[in-house]
Amino acid sequence: MSQPVVADQCVDASGLECPMPVLLTKKAMARMQPGEILHVISTDPASEIDITAYACKFEHHLLHVIRANNCWQFYLEKAR
């Protein structure tokens, strides 16, 4: 069994629609240090595509995605 991911910061974008979850994610990551972990919560189904693409484009490591009850949770590690 893997260890739980402990986030350094959290962005709660619940109730916000595209493009706000990814914009808030980008803004939070800009304030973080390499290696820190951001936890993002979103209720927008488009955020799965948007945040995954954002992580790939900027080479952040998408550690974990949880989908449950119309809610998405992402754990991203800032690129080094």
Topology of this structure?
Elements: E1 9-13, H1 20-30, E2 37-42, H2 46-57, E3 61-68, E4 71-77
Parallel strand pairs: 1-2
Antiparallel strand pairs: 2-4, 3-4
Helix pairs in contact: 1-2
Structure overview:
- The protein is of the alpha+beta class and 80 residues long.
- It has a single domain (9-77), classed as 2-Layer Sandwich (Translation Initiation Factor IF3).
- Helix content is 29%, strand content 32%.
- The chain contains two helices and four strands.
- It has helices at 20-30, 46-57, and strands at 9-13, 37-42, 61-68, 71-77.
- A four-stranded mixed beta sheet has the order 1-2-4-3, covered by helices on one side.
- α1 (20-30) runs parallel beside α2 (46-57).
- The model has no long low-confidence stretch (mean pLDDT 95).
Compact overview of the structure:
With 80 residues, the chain is α+β, with helices and mostly antiparallel strands.
User: Architecture in CATH?
Assistant: 2-Layer Sandwich
CATH topology: Translation Initiation Factor IF3
Order of helices and strands: EHEHEE
Main sheet: strands, sense, barrel: 4 strands, mixed
Strand order across the largest sheet: 1-2-4-3
- Separation of termini? 26 Å
CATH homologous superfamily classification: TusA-like domain
| Count of distinct structural domains | 1
Keyword list:
Translation Initiation Factor IF3, alpha+beta, 2 helices, 80 residues, globular
